[in-house]
């Protein structure tokens, strides 16, 4: 009790106000100062070790509940001896939180720090536990020095990151929607090391967040609280490439683009391609069952992954690394790991069927006529038929060589042009389409593409267009499409939705959302994989507010569900969507998923708080 009173008096509110005033009016970065004797200065032991050094002080990146990480080094208490220290670790059932009355004020303080630091141009996002306060930390063991020593013994000093500045990038997702405060990132190189880590964590009930390239868009790849991050970044060995069968075997941490470059020397290519190819890992792709720009032609990973190796939560290695095209011996266990987003095991190796690299590639970029959308509530159909006609024609006339059919609306093009300074090949149009062919005979493919373009022009289905087979021009067009996510990110806070809809309703959600939100959003735009019926709806606002989120969700999911769509076409469920899963999956399916989770990971250490909805 004396400790508590001590600490309350040590938070000098007058001083905080004065410092805030200086920050607001004099634009100085804010660093709250608390007296080093307060229990807040005895954070998690790892944090206390980690704040050593001037760099940590300079950065001023506090962990939630750790309002001291800006301070010069404070000696941590003897591990396991102080009650308040154990309470801060969340391991003492008797003392959950020594200062519950101070938590709200400190949370507000953290928000202010974020706000002020953003003003200084250093965007620091709120922690997920603050932005999503309904999600509570599970009863997992907090790391202590012994745990770290084990990891260092297993991996070596250099592959165990604990400094806040080293861990920060692993705590924030690509679109900066979610942020954890892990102070331990592990970088195994081999399957055996992954196995050693998981066996150890499972026994002690330490939560683990698997991470590949951290390009996921649903908050699945970063910790929610202090989960240990297991990064596959150093598991990047290509094991074999068979020129005849086209089968590539590699470790899970290989970067998609590097694999594609490697395969080009063998006359092959990866069966998937996406805007994040320069960063995402094949293990991350498999774990999210990523779709991408050419799923229309090459199918999804459930088809092209022939086999994989995974490590179960208890450390057991599961060898399903078949390279056979046909293998119907019992259940196809690989499917447990394709798309399960790191909740059932960690993928360590992948065998994947790769198609031949096309000898002829053609690309058309089309400017569409204005059309009125068939909305969910009205019966008016006008020229959306036009777009559908183009898709239908492309599928039939280009048939076996059609490799991609993408679309974007005017506001999407605008965001790319204004933020990335990329040049649109066409003047302004309400809608744009990209149609690509992959084939083996240049003359034949070009002739097919030209005939198709002539036909849609003759039928007045398009207003304008450009076609090319020049590599640099095709790259410029793909750049526009592939960098949309990056441009949107620069436009403001983005609410992202990745929806599958029956093709006749493909765009209907965009005007419905525009009507619903009116001027409360800065921009509401849509683009996506039209050929697969996969729309990316993006709502951009100046700042995240719960109010606007409440206007969007669950409406967006109800709308999708009523049209018999899917609330996640390709990005997965991650941290942001579990409670909405029932809009796309039956109760029975969700129950079976939960049973599988218990079977595969009975202690729930793998990527907690993700994918599965909480039990009510
Ligand atoms: C610019 C941009 C464009 C994108 N375009 C597309 C697109 O067209 N189509 C598409 O589907 N997605 C797209 N994405 C989303 C993202 O790139 C994919 O989801 C990708 O597959 C994630 O791979 P990653 O290595 O970055 O995985 P991460 O983001 O690190 O992780 C994603 C999920 O997989 C888990 N995970 C990662 N590695 C493993 C492993 N080895 N074992 C078990 N679990 C693991 C993580 O815990 C997390 O839940 C895009 C993202 C960006 C930023």
TrEMBL record:
<feature type="region of interest" description="Disordered">
    <location>
        <begin position="57"/>
        <end position="96"/>
    </location>
</feature>
<comment type="function">
    <text>Catalyzes the oxidation of D-2-hydroxyglutarate (D-2-HG) to alpha-ketoglutarate. Also catalyzes the oxidation of other D-2-hydroxyacids, such as D-malate (D-MAL) and D-lactate (D-LAC). Exhibits high activities towards D-2-HG and D-MAL but a very weak activity towards D-LAC.</text>
</comment>
<feature type="compositionally biased region" description="Polar residues">
    <location>
        <begin position="76"/>
        <end position="91"/>
    </location>
</feature>
<dbReference type="GO" id="GO:0005739">
    <property type="term" value="C:mitochondrion"/>
</dbReference>
<dbReference type="GO" id="GO:0051990">
    <property type="term" value="F:(R)-2-hydroxyglutarate dehydrogenase activity"/>
</dbReference>
<keyword id="KW-0560">Oxidoreductase</keyword>
<dbReference type="Pfam" id="PF01565">
    <property type="entry name" value="FAD_binding_4"/>
</dbReference>
<dbReference type="InterPro" id="IPR016164">
    <property type="entry name" value="FAD-linked_Oxase-like_C"/>
</dbReference>
<protein>
    <recommendedName>
        <fullName>D-2-hydroxyglutarate dehydrogenase, mitochondrial</fullName>
        <ecNumber>1.1.99.39</ecNumber>
    </recommendedName>
</protein>
<keyword id="KW-0274">FAD</keyword>
<dbReference type="InterPro" id="IPR016166">
    <property type="entry name" value="FAD-bd_PCMH"/>
</dbReference>
<dbReference type="InterPro" id="IPR016169">
    <property type="entry name" value="FAD-bd_PCMH_sub2"/>
</dbReference>
<comment type="subunit">
    <text>Homodimer.</text>
</comment>
<feature type="domain" description="FAD-binding PCMH-type">
    <location>
        <begin position="178"/>
        <end position="357"/>
    </location>
</feature>
<dbReference type="InterPro" id="IPR016167">
    <property type="entry name" value="FAD-bd_PCMH_sub1"/>
</dbReference>
<dbReference type="GO" id="GO:0071949">
    <property type="term" value="F:FAD binding"/>
</dbReference>
<dbReference type="InterPro" id="IPR016171">
    <property type="entry name" value="Vanillyl_alc_oxidase_C-sub2"/>
</dbReference>
<dbReference type="InterPro" id="IPR004113">
    <property type="entry name" value="FAD-bd_oxidored_4_C"/>
</dbReference>
<dbReference type="InterPro" id="IPR051264">
    <property type="entry name" value="FAD-oxidored/transferase_4"/>
</dbReference>
<dbReference type="InterPro" id="IPR036318">
    <property type="entry name" value="FAD-bd_PCMH-like_sf"/>
</dbReference>
<dbReference type="GO" id="GO:0005777">
    <property type="term" value="C:peroxisome"/>
</dbReference>
<keyword id="KW-0285">Flavoprotein</keyword>
<dbReference type="InterPro" id="IPR006094">
    <property type="entry name" value="Oxid_FAD_bind_N"/>
</dbReference>
<keyword id="KW-0576">Peroxisome</keyword>
<comment type="similarity">
    <text>Belongs to the FAD-binding oxidoreductase/transferase type 4 family.</text>
</comment>
<dbReference type="Pfam" id="PF02913">
    <property type="entry name" value="FAD-oxidase_C"/>
</dbReference>
């Amino acid at each position: 009790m004396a400790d508590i009173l001590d600490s309350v008096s040590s938070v000098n509110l007058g001083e905080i106000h004065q410092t805030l005033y200086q920050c607001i009016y004099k634009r100085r970065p804010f660093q709250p100062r608390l007296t080093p004797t307060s229990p807040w200065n005895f954070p998690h032991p790892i944090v206390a070790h980690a704040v050593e050094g001037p760099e940590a002080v300079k950065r001023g990146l506090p962990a939630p509940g750790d309002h001291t990480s800006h301070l010069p080094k404070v000696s941590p208490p003897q591990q396991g001896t102080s009650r308040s220290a154990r309470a801060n670790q969340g391991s003492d059932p008797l003392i959950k939180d020594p200062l519950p009355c101070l938590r709200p004020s400190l949370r507000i303080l953290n928000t202010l720090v974020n706000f002020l630091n953003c003003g200084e141009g250093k965007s620091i996002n709120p922690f997920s536990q603050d932005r999503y306060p309904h999600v509570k930390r599970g009863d997992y063991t907090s790391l202590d020095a012994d745990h770290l020593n084990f990891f260092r013994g297993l991996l070596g000093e250099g592959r165990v990151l604990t400094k806040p500045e080293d861990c920060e990038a692993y705590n924030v997702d690509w679109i900066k929607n979610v942020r954890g405060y892990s102070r331990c990132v592990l970088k195994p190189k081999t399957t055996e090391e992954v196995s050693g880590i998981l066996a150890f964590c499972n026994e002690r009930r330490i939560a683990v967040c698997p991470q590949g390239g951290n390009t996921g868009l649903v908050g699945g790849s970063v910790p929610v609280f202090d989960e240990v991050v297991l990064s596959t970044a150093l598991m990047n060995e290509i094991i074999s490439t068979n020129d005849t069968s086209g089968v590539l075997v590699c470790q899970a941490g290989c970067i998609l683009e590097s694999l594609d470059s490697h395969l080009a020397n063998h006359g092959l290519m990866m069966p998937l391609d996406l805007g994040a190819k320069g960063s995402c890992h094949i293990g991350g792709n498999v774990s999210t069952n990523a779709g991408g720009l050419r799923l229309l032609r090459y199918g999804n990973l459930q088809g092209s992954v022939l086999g994989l190796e995974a490590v179960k939560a208890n450390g057991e290695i599961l060898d399903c690394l078949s390279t056979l095209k046909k293998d119907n011996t019992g259940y196809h266990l690989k499917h447990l790991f394709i798309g399960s987003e790191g909740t059932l095991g960690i993928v360590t190796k992948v065998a994947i069927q790769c198609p031949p690299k096309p000898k002829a590639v053609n690309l058309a970029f089309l400017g569409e006529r204005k059309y009125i959308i068939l909305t969910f509530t009205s019966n008016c159909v006008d020229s959306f038929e036009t777009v559908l006609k183009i898709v239908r024609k492309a599928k039939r006339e280009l048939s076996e060589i059609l490799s991609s059919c993408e679309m974007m609306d005017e506001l999407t093009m605008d965001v790319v042009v204004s933020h990335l300074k990329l040049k649109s090949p066409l003047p302004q149009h309400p809608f744009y389409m990209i149609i690509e062919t992959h084939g083996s005979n240049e003359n034949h493919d070009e002739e097919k593409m030209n005939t198709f373009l002539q036909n849609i022009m003759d039928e007045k289905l398009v207003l304008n267009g450009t076609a090319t087979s020049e590599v640099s021009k095709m790259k410029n067009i793909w750049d526009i499409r592939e960098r949309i996510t990056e441009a949107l990110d620069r436009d403001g806070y983005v609410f992202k939705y990745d929806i599958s809809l029956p093709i006749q309703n493909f765009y209907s959600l965009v005007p419905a959302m525009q009507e619903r939100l009116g001027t409360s959003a800065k921009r509401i735009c849509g683009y996506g994989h039209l050929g697969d019926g996969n729309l990316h709806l993006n709502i951009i606002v100046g700042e995240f507010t719960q109010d606007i989120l409440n206007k969007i969700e669950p409406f967006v999911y109800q709308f999708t569900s009523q049209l018999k769509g899917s609330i996640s076409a390709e990005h997965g469920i991650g941290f942001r969507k579990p409670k909405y899963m029932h809009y796309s999956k039956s109760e029975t399916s969700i129950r079976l998923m939960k049973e599988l989770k218990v079977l595969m990971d009975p202690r729930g250490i793998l990527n907690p708080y993700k994918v599965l909805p909480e039990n009510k």
